[in-house]
Sequence to fold (396 residues):
Amino acid sequence: MSNQNPVFIPGPTNIPDRLRLAMQVQTQDHRAPEFVEVFAPALDGAKKVFRTDKAQVMVFPASGTGGWEAAVTNTLSPGDTVLVARYGVFSHRWIDLCKRHGLDVQVIDCPWGTGAPADRFQEVLSKDTSHQIKAVLITHNETATGVRSDIAAVRRAMDTARHPAMMFVDCVSSLASMPFEFDHWGVDIAVSGSQKGFMLATGMAILCVSPKAQRAMETAKLPRTFFDFRDMMAANASGGFPYTPPLQLIYGMRESLNMLFEEGLDAVYARHFRLAEGVRRAVKAWGLGLVAQSPDLYSDTVSAIYVPDGYDSNALTDHAFNAYGVSFGIGLGELNGKAFRIGHLGSLTDVMVLSGLGTIEMAMADLNYPIKLGSGVAAAQEYFRTGPSGHAKAAA
Ligand SMILES: *Cc1c(COP(=O)(O)O)cnc(C)c1O
Fold:
């Protein structure tokens, strides 16, 4: 079977040839001047994607999960209270990580398909007059449900409550595909990874750390060695790394940033909205429903889609893979068996999305789903041609 088919899992994402080539570099001495010439622009470029002037970008050899661990261990002490909302598998896993580090985790459980509850955060923070809560943790894009949360609204809630807690945001599946505003939203630590919006191989956690979070690291008592921000910042200041850097990924990152800036970040975000909207039109044409409960919550990087009652979403994703060689995201956690996911982040075009929609339609038809073959593809084609950025009018 051909392995040329794109993947439609919401990360790791398809790696463009340009980036695969950029990562094809022979071993180099990371203490040689050449390394600085690649590393410094990569860190600097990433600041433009986070949209920050004052914060520090750091990269660690790790996946996104390591980025969470770095954020928590560098800024908090055992027994500290953190406030987190749970609305999917990824927000849950971050909570689990905090608990295992001996933090006192105050959890707000929300229905899956909803996002960060700014009003409930405000309520809890207003009552915390002695400021026991040291950080509020938010998953910007809950990859399990296809929900994007309103980070600006959480910032307003924290400001209204006049609460000094830090704000940590997981943007692993949103950064470089959907707008992110580190400074404007008052984020203290943002956590991302190399294998999603940056279109690279897995293996690098990418963090952005505010001056306030840097001050917190001076008194934080959770143990850390490998992830210690102080060692990383000291080494980065002279263009170096505290241990062996993931050289090939750093070369890839520099080129990924070149690609993003050549297209233009606004154009990148518009493309993801357009691809997502094509998928949403297809879902509607199939007569199926999204897990995200309302349009203001729709993610532009992943759509989680309920299968009809009596159908098993795992059988669908298995069949799409076995019969057609295409991977879609399975339903995670309480959505297992009930929903499948189409990832539409990173390096993706209209044409690639149509191939994914065509494939999952065939798989659904094979399994006797009550859908009309071609209906979703046609709805997406119509949107791609005649929607706000379509080419139909110009060609006529
Ligand atoms: C992918 C992802 C992560 C990190 O997962 P890793 O496998 O550790 O890279 C964290 N949060 C969200 C929302 C994600 O989508």
Q: What stands out?
A: Residues 265-395 form a domain with the Aspartate Aminotransferase, domain 1 fold (CATH 3.90.1150.10). The CA atoms of residues 14 and 286 lie 26 Å apart. Residues 265-286 form the longest helix (22 residues). The chain has a mean pLDDT of 97.
